[in-house]
Amino acid sequence: MATIIDGKALAATTRERAAAEVTKLAAQGIACGLAVILVGDDQGSATYVRAKLRDCEQCGIPSKDYKLPAETSQEELMELVGQLNADNEVAGILVQMPLPKHLDEEAVVAAIDPKKDVDGFHPENLGKLVRGLPGLRPCTPAGIMEMFDAYDIDPAGKNAVIVGRSSIVGKPMSLMLLAKNATISVAHSHTDPRELARICQSADILVAACGIPKMIKGPWIKPGATVIDVGMDRDENGKLCGDVDFASAELVAGAITPVPGGVGPMTRAMLMSNVVLAAKAQHGLL
Ligand code: GUN
After folding, report:
1. pLDDT tens for residues 137-189?
2. Does 3.40.50.720 match the CATH number of domain 139-264?
3. DSSP states of 167-188
4. Do the domains 28-114 and 139-264 sit in the same CATH topology, yes or no?
């Protein structure tokens, strides 16, 4: 049976560490504020934002919560981002995605001061990741790298397969694993479906981030492999599940993340540590 990677416990430790840093910085007169912007009334996004604000409270991070109507114009949103860029109390800015269709997400991400880009989505931060320079990293893959560390899983020399190529998870994940000397394959919606099982079977580290419920089953997994499930899907009964069929996968994997309780909590916790990192970097403390 596989080791279950306890994202919840690791997230709690990560938050405690962030909270201790926040206290230390506050004693030096440095504010670690996080501004969170939610446009429109998507219920899923509202739930995520509430959870992030709760995390802030728990870590002693002062948050500014902006709930804007769905009709907000590009100009209004850009104006708010500009104000927050100039606000010394705000160390980090998060604009919850997706934005309503009439808004230009790329322009909004690019307008955020890269030093305050705690999502790590800004082209400057992604460019730094490509070049192997320090910078703010996207929370989900950063959290997964913390899991490898915590469970003594060294990616060096391993075959890592990432299923999914989003800018939020798949692409940065592949670069972070590459930086740790893994050999990378990225499978995606155009990968020959007849090849997909074989590609997954070659993985010592398999990261599933494709958004298809339970797509990856036990026989696709190399015995002893580390399986990381980024999925937040619903199964045929409406129950929360991942991209991996956990029941069959845990019989084969060496280590595996559950859904819920795996990648999700760590992603949120990494946002807190990114706020601390951003505040420190802004004050020349790194
Ligand atoms: N929407 C889904 N995931 C994320 C995330 O990590 N950050 C932001 N800003 N929006 C999201």
Report:
1. 999 999 999 999 999 999 999 999 999 999 999 999 999 999 999 999 999 99
2. yes
3. TTTHHHHHHHHHHTT-EEEEE-
4. yes
pLDDT at 113: 98
Residue 1 has pLDDT above 90, yes or no: no
Q: Could you identify the atom of ligand 1 that is nearest to the CA of residue 271?
A: 6
Residue nearest to atom 3 of ligand 1 (CA): 97
Q: Is the pLDDT of residue 199 over 90?
A: yes
- Residue numbers annotated as active site: 52, 96, 119
Residue with tokens 């429109």: 40
Give CA–CA dist 99/81, Å, rounded: 14
**Measured between alpha carbons, how far is 26 from 33 in angstroms, rounded to an integer?**
11
pLDDT tens for each residue of 38-57: 999 999 999 999 999 999 99
Sorted by sequence, the CB contacts under 8 Å of residue 249 that are 6+ apart come out as 2, 216, 217, 218, 221, 227, 256
Contact 8, 265 (CB under 8 A): yes
Q: To test the ligand 1 pocket, which listed residue (43, 45, 48, 137) has its Cβ within 8 A of the most ligand atoms?
A: 48
Rounded to two decimals, the pTM is 0.97
In this predicted structure, what is the pLDDT of residue 8?
A: 98
Residues 6+ apart with CB under 8 A from 156: 180, 181, 182
Q: Per-domain residue ranges for the chain?
A: 28-114, 139-264
* Residues sharing a CB contact under 8 Å with residue 55, sequence separation 6 or more, in sequence order: 15, 61, 268, 269, 271, 272
CATH class of 28-114: alpha beta
